[in-house]
Amino acid sequence: MAVGDGAVQEEHFDVLTKTGQKTGLSKPRGEVHRDGDYHRAVHVWIWAENTQQLLLQRRSDCKDSWAGLWDISSAGHISAGDSSLLTARRELQEELGVILPKDAFEMIFVFLQECVINDGTFINNEFNDVYLVTTLDPIPLEAFTLQESEVSAVKYISYKEYKSLLAKEDPAYVPYDVNGQYGQLFDIIEQRYKENNVARSLTLQKQLRRYAPVSLDPELTGFTDADKEALNLLVQAATIMDEIFCLQVWYSNPDLRDWLKKHADASHIDKLKWAYYLINKSPWSSLDENEAFLTTADSAVKLIPEATIAVTGWKGLEYKAAFPVLKPPGANFYPPDMDKTEFELWKSSLTDEQKEDATGFFNVVKRRSEFALDASIYNRTVDDTEHLLHSAHDLYTVPHDLYTVPFAQEYSSFLRKAAELLHKAGDLSSSPSLKRFLHSRADAFLSNDYYDSDIAWMELDSKLDITIGPYETYEDALFGYKATFEAFIGVRDDKATAQLKLFGDHLQVLEQNLPLDNIYKSKDVIAAPIRVIQLLYNAGDVKGPQTVAFNLPNDERIVKDRGTSMVMLKNISEAKFKHILVPIADACLVEEQQELVDFDSFFTHTICHECCHGIGPHTIILPNGKQSTVRLELQEVHSALEEAKADIVGLWALRFLIDQDLLPKSLLESMYVSFLAGCFRSVRFGLEEAHGKGQALQFNWMYEKGAFVLHPDERFSVDFSKAEGAVESLSREILTIQAKGDKEAAKLLLQKYSELTEPLQIALQKLENVQVPVDIVPTFPIANKILKKQGH
Asked: Where is the secretion signal located (predicted)?
């Protein structure tokens, strides 16, 4: 119930569809249960890890449902416009007097309860977001402050005993079907705490073997003492990108990382956990469709003495920093319980400038109500939070709980340190272009305006090469709006760089000849500078499979005004070719085509891939005449489609340049065969990853068109007579979808072709059988020596 103007107003709920989506309507609580409308609530379970017990509450005798029965630790409806996690935290505070931060709550599943009670007068069609709070030991019963109108008593009970009582339908307990959806609670607990450590160690070892260790140790020939001192500072700045990225992935990720590192030497399995975490930079495995290889049971222990009222002799509540088993699509860029409907309703209320912030690369989205509740935890000011606990807002009339925070503010403590290091390195540098970039990027870290520093990066002309800042948007799987921080430090390969001028100089020619209607083609594509480097160190968003090249910036304003610039990581490409592509060819291709897989074809296609990020549709005109961008229109499907576009149009571009006698005809067959082998390499990254999903789309299209052939001996070949047509048709399909900003067409294309089809399964099984590495894990002797001196 809410209080306003001296009158009691009945609580309103969002009315949902039968699939749990918001309809845009809200109704009073009584009408919702009278009419059987679908709505949402939260269940919060407090689990004591050391005693394997769950906390139960006995419902007050005055409740309108299940009065006087033992039930969930804490539960409550989500008021209209309110969020799930915020409600879970509020209910725990209101009912039990337990105040916990959001990292104590793990969403474990959603349970749909459909029942009729009270002689048919109370219809409950309720989606329940089920949360688990994992404490080390039971909370002393005297530490709870019970809300008498809701809760009459609490007790701990063995989860096995509780499950048994529910199975027997004991009348003293609110019924839940332990053999149905709610059985997930007990399944999760049993799996989490009865896992065989020997079997788990074997699984982690198998996962680690998929990465071939490679040492990258480029020569520093030509570096002055000042250059080397600048390098020291840049490596230190790069490690700060790791800190920021760790936080961007998930809010409890830094605590998990520090805990795993601290306990890495405790046992063999702890050592394996830490090793695999270092590769993935999170508890989710990049090569396994982001499946969790850790659980909250593996996470950091945190103590909050003030979470409850004090009890003599008890130091306070210790809990595990939680993370969900399913990787959150919005990472830590948005509130964890925000859905697309809420975001779009909020965005529709904003000015054009505010909308740019909401969808921009360099801002996070937060909740005002969460900020206020967090303040109450640390200040323990009950009077200040009373209003928050009892005043729900209606999303459809006052959609202003969300707000944006610029990266410069959100990560200020990190970015100030990074800016200081970049300024110092800039002062030392003898290269005018490097000096300009480092100073302007340092300023951008503090101003949140990256335009000038991105231009300075594109004009970089220095033996010591660095890319540092927020760039890629893959981690934002909700919309593809938000950029993650990363760093690449390398030594420019002058000879290889000089050989690549051809590609950058012919971008406009490629644009004008794209397999795309002329109305969509740009007339002012700018030549893309290309730099080849030998990678010396990387940090930040470099988890899982290693990139062989990148094309930046992604800011559509700069792409339109100045084009893009490419950086090729030659020693990474060489390592992948040697350790992965050659063994793939040996295992999967017909013998007569194996010799066509060569490094020149592999590397040249990689160059064309990056070039083709800079051509094709970027800024577009929608059918209603409004200007937009491909990224904004395609949202979460943009990354996968863009990677597929760059790949397949890159293959088309190679053929075009060969036909123009700009590249040797000897590349013609080898490029198709090397591409086929490369399909199997990238699909192994997983279909949740943009490159893997895009590669599956391309392989299945080429296979359907007959360009790729599977033989009875389960080996593959290229039918050269069909390859060109298949490449051109897919290029046209993707480019047209992008030009129209047609998200539905993009989704349909990916749904149809981004599948692990039988031919792909055959190839992947062959590679599994012969244990070809999926990717590499680099080590950096020079950078590690620098960091060791600095005490890292």
From this structure: none
The backbone region for 281, taken as left when phi is positive above 0, alpha when psi lies in -120 to 50, beta otherwise, is: left
pTM: 0.86
| Peptide bond connecting 336 to the previous residue in cis, omega within 30 degrees of 0 | no
Retrieve residue 77's tokens.
């409806």
- At 5 the pLDDT is 45
Indicate whether 237 belongs to any domain.
no
The angle, 0 to 180 degrees and rounded to 10, between the axes of the packed helices 758-769 and 667-683 is 80
Query: What is the 8-class DSSP label of residue 577?
Result: I
Instruction: Express each pLDDT in 631-646 by its tens digit.
Output: 999 999 999 999 999 9
- Give the distance, in angstroms, between the CA of residue 228 and the centroid of all CA atoms in the same chain: 35
Tell me the sheet residues that pair with 229.
none
Q: CA–CA distance from 120 to each of 62, 113, 124, 584 (Å)? A: 18, 15, 10, 64
Confidence check: pLDDT of 417 > 50: yes
| pLDDT exceeds 60 at position 381 | no
**Do 649 and 735 contact (CB within 8 A), yes or no?**
yes
Whole-angstrom Cα distance, residue 601 to residue 669? 9
d(CA 12, CA 398): 14
Question: Cα(first)–Cα(last) distance of the chain, in Å?
Answer: 54
Using the structure block, give the residue that is written with the tokens 């830590």.
Answer: 332
Looking at residue 196, its pLDDT comes to 86
> Which residue carries 């520090």 as its tokens?
258
Give me the residue label for tokens 């921009």.
Answer: 360
Residue whose C-alpha is closest to residue 238's, from 524, 500, 537: 537
> What residues does 701 pair with on adjacent strands?
none
Is 504 part of any domain? no
Dist CA 565 CA 427 (whole Å): 25
Question: Cβ–Cβ contacts within 10 Å for residue 153, how many?
Answer: 14
Q: How far apart are the C-alpha atoms of 210 and 460, rounded to whole Å?
A: 36
pLDDT tens digits, 302-356: 999 999 999 999 999 999 999 999 999 999 999 999 988 889 989 999 999 999 9
Residue of higher predicted confidence among 240 and 504: 240
295, part of any domain: no
pLDDT over 90 at 448, yes or no: yes
CB-CB neighbours of 192 under 10 Å: 18
109: domain CATH number? Answer: 3.90.79.10
The predicted model gives 556-570 an average pLDDT of: 89
> What share of the chain in percent tops pLDDT 90?
80
Q: Which backbone phi and psi does 454 adopt, to 5 degrees?
A: -65, -40
Q: What angle do CA 354, 476, 693 make, to 5 degrees?
A: 135
* pLDDT tens-place string over residues 718-747: 999 999 999 999 999 999 999 999 999 999
Any idea what DSSP says for residue 194?
A: S
Question: Looking at the 3D structure of the chain, how many domains does it have?
Answer: 2
Residue 15 main-chain phi, psi, to 5 deg: -85, 130
Query: Which domain covers residue 183, as residue numbers?
Result: 12-193
> Alpha-carbon distance 593 to 498, whole Å?
31
| Of the residues 165, 193, 221, the one at which a domain ends | 193
Q: What is the CA radius of gyration of the chain?
A: 28
CA proximity to 96, closest of 120, 123, 72, 64: 72
Residue 669 located in a structural domain: yes
Cα distances from 248 to residues 251, 281, 462, 671, 688, in angstroms, run 7, 11, 30, 38, 18
In this predicted structure, the answer to whether residue 377 has a pLDDT above a threshold of 80 is: no
CA of 459: how far to CAs of 146, 439, 528, 529, 728, in Å? Answer: 64, 14, 10, 8, 33
End position of a domain, from candidates 145, 170, 193: 193
What's the rounded mean pLDDT across residues 504-514?
90
CA distances from 623 to 630, 692, 749 (A): 13, 31, 21
Contact 419, 234 (CB under 8 A): no
**CA distance readout (Å), 519 to 121, 561, 646, 704:** 62, 19, 20, 29
Pairing type for strands 291-292 and 284-285 reads antiparallel
